[in-house]
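Deliverable D2.4 — example input (structure tokens):
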């Protein structure tokens, strides 16, 4: 903890530095009287995760590093200030990828400007207020631009193989124009490739057919060979999509031929190319905001899978993808709720998401886990029909129904606040297996639409009812050990011709999530995200810092391998632009990792992560006395 003392010496603060030079003499005296001084030893943490604070930091002596993860993003010296986002932004809202920490690089002294004093000065001196808060607004804009640029850079590096390719449709040069037209109709194609006797390949499009037959009056019995165009525009499957866009624009064509190892493997259409390049999160976000019907939202929702594929394939880190997907999903849920709910329901309820969606760790469209908290005393006769309609639309968007029926369409999860409190009391004091699961999933809840204070009150009640009850926490933590984490996996399985698939969620991800959740609940933490829980537990000494860092890294690696296994699956989950399973190209839910398909790096990381998970499970078992 820093040592703080009131500052009564106005000369100790540098009022010559902007924007404090805008203050009048009286305002400077007022600020000097409100200042505190804090002393920080080297390596002390001044601020972490932009968590809410009540003062702005201004460095008086020494230096403070601003770190993002393990990297130093900035160094703040005398006269520099920080903490505006924590003061006015309500936290960073991130998922651990951009975590900020402010750490004393040497023994340092900081002035602390209380928010009340800052607000009063901003109100009294508009120029000062605009200057100091303008910095904050600009920083927020810069962060948004940084995220957008990073994502756009990833998208512009997308490869042709990430887009849908139309299968090549060949006809011989001797085939007639009628034959070509029938082949296009039969295969729902807009062009045919023409094989000539000399080995060359040409193309004949639907537009060519129209012009030749309708406008030029060619007999439909004429052969296609002499009429095809043989100056094919070709690109390799591993070429950049942007190169395809440039080529199409330069030559005013709507398709290019795609090759792999010299052989033609398909045709890339302009609409398919633009479909990938338009799957920028800002484009999807605009589609969501402008939606006027559930069908508009459904189309926007379908674009998320292509966005996941593109970002993953271009090397974007899984934490960033989870952050982005979480934000887009919640926008879609919120907009659907606002489209379907009457004003009185919006004003008297809170739509919540739980599970991985609540934790901000959603990567794929997994089962729905949502609920509705109603204000006590509110009654609306159309509630049952509304809840069923809401769930149905999410299913059509590609979010499967929850097997455990944890959805707003289930009255157990659409109830008044008092009903939720009664349920929480039961989950805590009569904890059978179902109660433990319900408590765990609700602990991860996050508000999406409506009055968020309803969820705040329910969670506050949950934390207030927890007692230092060893038996309760032993029962709550027990599912951490429910699934086996293979040991010696790669020493034995790789010796076999066929390795058994491993459920990466059960073997690795769930034990981390639930073990950390149990520790967080024991400490009454408000955080929901797993990485943020790990960091907070480490900061308060409830988890060894080295183990915490390794756990966070293992969680990220396992999540990345899980996503890679799904995205790279041979069937692609229908996500290649078609809809073979009727889900509009969603990535099917599959947590199986096949060890024989892993590259060396993934293989080594998977092995190390599973070994760490086993050690963490042993720690949880000892801490909560699960073996007694």
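Example output (designed residues):
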């Amino acid at each position: 903890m820093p040592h703080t003392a009131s500052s009564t010496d106005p000369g100790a603060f540098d009022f010559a530095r902007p924007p404090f030079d805008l203050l009048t003499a009286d305002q400077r005296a007022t600020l000097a009287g409100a200042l505190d001084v804090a002393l920080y030893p080297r390596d002390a943490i001044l601020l972490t995760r932009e968590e809410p604070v009540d003062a702005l930091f201004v460095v008086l002596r020494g230096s403070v590093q601003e770190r993002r993860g393990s990297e130093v993003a900035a160094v703040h010296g005398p006269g520099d200030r920080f903490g505006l986002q924590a003061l006015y932004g309500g936290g960073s809202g991130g998922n651990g990828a951009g975590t900020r920490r402010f750490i004393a690089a040497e023994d340092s002294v900081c002035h602390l400007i209380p928010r009340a004093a800052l607000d009063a000065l901003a109100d009294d001196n508009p120029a000062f207020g605009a200057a100091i808060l303008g910095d904050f607004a600009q920083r927020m804009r810069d962060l948004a631009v940084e995220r957008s640029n990073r994502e756009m850079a990833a998208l512009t590096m997308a490869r042709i193989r990430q887009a849908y390719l139309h299968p090549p449709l060949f006809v011989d040069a001797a085939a007639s124009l009628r034959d070509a037209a029938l082949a296009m109709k039969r295969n729902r194609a807009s062009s045919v490739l023409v094989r000539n006797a000399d080995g060359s390949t040409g193309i004949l499009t639907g537009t060519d057919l129209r012009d030749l037959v309708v406008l030029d009056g060619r007999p439909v019995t004429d052969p296609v060979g002499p009429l095809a165009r043989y100056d094919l525009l070709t690109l390799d499957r591993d070429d950049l999509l942007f190169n395809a866009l440039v080529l199409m624009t330069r030559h005013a064509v709507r398709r290019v031929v795609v090759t792999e190892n010299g052989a033609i493997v398909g045709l890339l259409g302009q609409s398919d190319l633009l479909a990938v390049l338009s799957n920028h999160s800002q484009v999807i976000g605009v589609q969501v905001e402008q939606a006027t019907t559930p069908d508009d939202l459904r189309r926007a929702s379908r674009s998320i899978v292509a966005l996941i594929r593109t970002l993953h394939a271009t090397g974007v880190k899984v934490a960033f993808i989870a952050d982005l997907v979480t934000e887009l999903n919640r926008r879609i849920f919120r907009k659907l709720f606002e489209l379907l709910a009457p004003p009185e329901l919006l004003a008297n309820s809170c739509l919540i998401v739980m599970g991985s969606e609540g934790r901000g760790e959603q990567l794929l469209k997994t089962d729905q886990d949502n609920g509705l908290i109603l204000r006590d005393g509110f009654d609306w006769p159309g509630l049952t029909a509304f809840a069923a309609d809401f769930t149905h639309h999410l299913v059509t968007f590609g979010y499967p129904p929850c097997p455990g029926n944890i959805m707003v369409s289930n009255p157990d999860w659409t109830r008044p606040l008092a009903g939720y409190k009664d349920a929480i009391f039961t989950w805590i004091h009569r904890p059978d297996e179902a109660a433990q699961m319900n408590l765990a999933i609700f602990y991860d809840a996050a508000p999406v639409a409506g009055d968020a204070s309803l969820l705040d009150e329910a969670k506050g009640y949950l934390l207030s009812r927890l007692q230092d009850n060893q038996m309760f926490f032993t029962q709550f933590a027990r599912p951490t050990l429910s699934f086996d984490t293979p040991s010696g996996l790669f020493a034995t399985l790789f010796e076999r011709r066929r390795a058994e698939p491993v459920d990466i969620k059960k073997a690795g991800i769930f034990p981390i999530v639930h073990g950390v959740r149990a520790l967080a609940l024991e400490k009454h933490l408000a955080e929901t995200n797993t990485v943020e829980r790990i960091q907070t537990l480490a900061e308060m000494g409830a988890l060894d810092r080295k183990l915490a860092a390794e756990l966070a890294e293992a969680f990220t690696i396992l999540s990345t391998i899980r996503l890679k296994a799904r995205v790279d699956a041979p069937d692609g989950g229908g996500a290649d632009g078609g809809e073979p399973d009727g889900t509009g190209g969603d990535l099917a839910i599959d947590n199986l990792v096949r060890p024989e398909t892993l590259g060396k790096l993934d293989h080594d990381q998977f092995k190390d992560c599973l070994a760490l998970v086993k050690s963490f499970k042993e720690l949880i078992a000892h801490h909560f006395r699960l073996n007694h």
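The domain at 318-461 is CATH 3.30.460.10 (Beta Polymerase; domain 2).
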